[in-house]
């Protein structure tokens, strides 16, 4: 835990060189990463702002890559930031010091603004996440902007109508005509709020009708996903033949938080077995090659030995990386083989795993959304939580629409994959849906340019 006095800000100069002082508020690991993407673009602008940050959840390790100084108190909570999914997690956080931490953080934000005002520096706040950083920004009295990462109109509607829901509480998600409730929109329409950046066009359009200064500039989650290989390839005389003989590639996304991700991996391996069992060798649906390659995109936060042990226990044997028909940019990857299938575990080629996959077996939040945003289908298997539980998976299926196939248990994976691959027209619809819901790359740069103009 770090508790920096507001007046100690001068001990480490903020990043940047302009007179504008910018404070970033974010409330979660994913939100920290999105904030960092925007900051990377902000610092490339002419006369960039001087930047400090206050991560409201966790320790804000993502900010270290840009050497962004942190102000105020930072402390990891037992829930890891998932209190909204389970009331018991909130109780654990309160016992872990959440109330005192929140008080300290509000004081730190106000002290920061007062310090800048006394120094004669123009200041502003960028809130990234949900209502919590947005509320902190309003309480500060400074100018602010908001990047809304947590909510989307797709949770309650598509482009044509409201979604049909069976739960009694569904009405309250949209009772005022928007996924953003009246008190959230009130914070967005204060005179000090200069810009709101929703995560998709549908949400931006609806907020605009409610006097919110919303800008439809895209979702920074789709930035920084370039693979190690060129994505634009020229047509060759044997291109059709190569497409016919190439293997089916399935990306495996177990999430990044231990110990949950290890439990997710066991579920995914059950799905892998079900998928392999559903195909006959040289099955026409698997292209002529009859080969399947599974790409395990493993977060650095996980112990690869635990995952590889699980793979070996299910009959896979290690082979040289060169044997795999699919190549990734990670010499440290582990390659396994079983019958006519390969499984690769990598902790250094995440982007390659997203781009090479034809479909995904997914039990993750951000990673699943990024995969779908590339125009590809994912099969989601609900886990035990605290993040990827049945409630989260159901909400994610609404957010991503046709691009997600939600199964009740891992044993259904095989039949769902066969159903997907048999319908080429549906795959095209899924592709268009993913691009529309997640947006085009370059959002961080567009948001940075807008912030410089507004501030």
TrEMBL record:
It comes from the Bacteria. InterPro entries: Lipid-A-disac_synthase-rel_put. NCBIfam families: lipid-A-disaccharide synthase-related protein. This is Lipid-A-disaccharide synthase-related protein.
